[in-house]
Amino acid sequence: MTPRGYAAAIRASKLSIYSPIEIGSRLYIPTKELEILLNRAMRGFNVAGMALRTRSKEVKTRVCQALGYPVPKSFKRVQPRFPGQNFDTYVQKSLNLQVWNEKLAGTRRYVLIRERDGILTKVRVVTGEVLAELDRTGKLTQKYQARLISGADLVELISARDTERLRPLVQAAHVAGSPTDYPREGRILPMTEVFERLRGLVGVTFPDAGRDQERNRGAALHAIVCEALGFLDYRDDGSFPDVKAQLVEVKLQTSPTIDLGLVTPDSTEPLDMPQVGGTQLRHCDVRYAVFDAMTDGTTVTIRRMYLASGADFFSRFPRFGGRVLNRKLQIPLPDDFFGDAEGLAH
């Protein structure tokens, strides 16, 4: 559906923001569409001079109106603030995001609204998983990790086939559309075909952006993977999984520690996307392409490639331990997070 289509469906349902909604259903707004609706509603809204509580209430009121919900007489102090759509809202005068009194939730959405000189200018909607990747201080919750133990083989197909839930939806076919499109029934390559297309990347090299530029390293590999899978262009919207249309998450490993973020690969939590062929896909249905690589500081060389479903991930890569207790979290957002590089003071 279109963004306005989701809002119209919610309006017709007469549900409240506190009514539970199944992720992937026609009443659950996917992140991309949610961001479009909220940008239309928020951009240009003047909050100059408002007290913080007043500003918070006004913003939440506009959110309700934008999404088709009736505005409640009072907003409940629940977490997340919009439980039906699984998101919280934050108005950001600076690029220092503060999350109080709770952990980052990997699958929750965080609506970050940029304020400049009293005017709301831009909305970004990201998951806790994405925010965790932005933390460079190491002070967030201890993320899930696994260990890469190299074997003798240069390529390994760890999962002989896709998960039972995904299997009816896959089909050997020509790849079409964009890597950031939602997956569609009959247009998803089977696990074995993904493996055949990616195994040839062993030995491929690309320029090293530097140890402090992990995001750029990953983007370079992501582009190579998209081409190998058959896409005519490379796009990355920063969401999970990396190649959404083919349900492929890409991991570049120049060290043995595989960072997995806040959600484990074998999680049965639903993916933040519409249902595919009437089926709600989960994190464990995603295919993980792990590339063991080395770098001399100038060039990255892919040495080995592994492919596994999320469900089978830990059968090959041993899991590390749990998490730490949460305190107030402060996450420095990149200068270009809202699509600019103005470098607001943190």
Describe what this molecule looks like in 3D.
The protein is an alpha/beta fold and 346 residues long. The chain folds into two domains: 3-139 and 325-332, no CATH class; 144-316, no CATH class. It is 21% helix and 21% strand. It is built from seven helices and twelve strands. The protein has helices at residues 3-13, 31-42, 52-67, 128-134, 191-198, 214-229, 313-316; strands at residues 87-92, 96-99, 109-116, 119-127, 144-147, 155-157, 205-207, 248-253, 257-261, 287-295, 299-309, 329-332. Strands 6, 7, 8, 10 and 11 form a five-stranded mixed beta sheet that branches. Strand 3 (109-116) and strand 4 form a beta hairpin. Helix 1 (3-13) packs across helix 2. The longest helix has 16 residues, at 52-67. The radius of gyration is 21 Å and the shape is globular.
